[in-house]
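Revision sheet: structure tokens.
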Amino acid sequence: MPEWELKWPWHKIKSDSQVREDFLQESLPFIRHVAHQVTHRYLEWGRDEELSEALIAFNEAVEHYDDERSVPFLAFARVLIKRRLIDFFRRQKHNDALSFEEEAGQGAEINISLGEFSEQEQNKERVLEIQEFSQKLLEYQLSFNDLAKASPKHRDTRETLLRVACHLARDSELWQQVLTKRKLPMQALVMQTQVHPKVLERGRKYILAVALLIAHEYDFIYLREYVLTKERRERG
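Predicted:
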């Protein structure tokens, strides 16, 4: 779960209109990102109706979400946004509506409750994330098999590498080097994190993979939630 979402208590979001409004405002980048995934074009607030529709769907997701359920909120919101946009295109008789309907399933219900967000549908979302992340890993000459072998066995080591991955993904200058060279800026990481070079080298694949999850926080919701929740659970 992204850090911007973690700081918002759900009981406040649901009961306090100002807190909900603040949460919606801070969630606008996520809402636009999902809408862009559906429309495949740049969208601008105040100009494109698709964003208004997406915002309505996100607010509906907030209304129906129960934080005691083991479903990531952003995953639930993502589905509602996509479904509402499909319905919007259908109503507008948009030229691209058919392709969007085929992607999500013809005749799908637009408004669903959290209880109706079935395990089968969540599994479908997880599979799509795994497929997309596999393609992303290939860009860096990595695979899930590599990650299984590279994953640290000791909790302390894993937490250290997770800290490095977070630093890497959130530092725009370092991350730009990753995007350009498709590899870790090892010297800069050693200097900035004070982690021994041998530790970084042994955890290179793990650091890069986790940093990709963190940098693409809106795309790999289930995978990111699994990695970060596991770390939080083991600390407790």
